[in-house]
Amino acid sequence: MNGPEVPRTDVKVKIRPLGPDLLEAARAFFARVPEGDRTFFKEDVLDPLAIEAWAHDTKDRRLVAVDDAGAVVGYVAVIRGVAWSSHVGEVRVVVNPAQRRAGVGRALARRGLMEGLAMDLHKLTVEVVVEQTAAIAMFEDIGFEREALLIDQVQDRNGELHDLLLLAHAVDETWELMAAVGLDDALI
User: Fold this and answer.
1) Is residue 98 in some structural domain?
2) 90: CATH
3) At what angle do helices 171-180 and 104-118 cross, to 10 degrees?
4) Is 8 domain-assigned?
5) C-beta separation of 92 from 79 below 8 A
6) How is the beta sheet containing 145-155 ordered, strand by strand?
7) Structural domain includes residue 7
8) How far is CA 18 from the centre of its chain?
9) How many Cβ atoms from other residues are within 10 Å of residue 71's Cβ?
């Protein structure tokens, strides 16, 4: 029977800050991410020094999804902008291909929203290559809206150009709505 793909719900994870205790598990996770997926990363996730620096970062928020066996199966970062963009944070989400469509990415993205609130950011953005339609749909489902399409913005390892979609979420509006219904106190 062919029909819409049903998301898996069998993956149980805990989302934890990336700290020194999770360095080896995080390195193993990024080593498992297919090279094609790593094409679109802004940082060299195979550089052990990069991941170690993340574990000691106090400006940005970097968290990992850890399964019951202690393996890292997902990652989310909220990277604060600088200078005139210091009110904006960029969300980056990566999920192990074996755990995709199981709700891990959505849980990480939602946690990224909460971290953006805690960081007192006014706006969060996410950049997604247009071919990643499932990721775009997931971010739109949690309140991100299409803001810009950048034509031929990304070049993969094979030299092919890809369009990049910028989605944005007004964190201030979310916080105001949560305050109006009394949910803001639950997060403090």
Assistant:
1) yes
2) 3.40.630.30
3) 90
4) no
5) yes
6) 13-17, 61-67, 72-80, 88-95, 123-129, 161-170, 145-155
7) no
8) 13
9) 16
Range of the domain at 22: 13-187
Q: Count how many domains the chain has.
A: 1
Residue 136's H or E segment, with its range, is: helix 133-141
Using alpha carbons, select from 91, 174, 172 the residue that is nearest to residue 135: 91
- Going by C-alpha positions, the residue among 142, 133, 126 that lies closest to residue 5 is 133
Which residue reads 């993969």 in tokens? 156
- Taking only the tens place, the pLDDT of each residue in 25-66 is 999 999 998 887 777 688 888 888 988 999 898 899 999 999
Q: Which residue has the higher pLDDT, 106 or 156?
A: 106
Residue 1 within a domain = no
pTM over 0.85: no
Name residue, tokens 């049903």.
Answer: 6
Structure token pair of residue 45 = 């996730």
Q: What is the pLDDT of residues 107-160, one digit of tens each?
A: 999 999 999 999 999 999 999 999 999 999 999 999 999 999 999 999 888 899
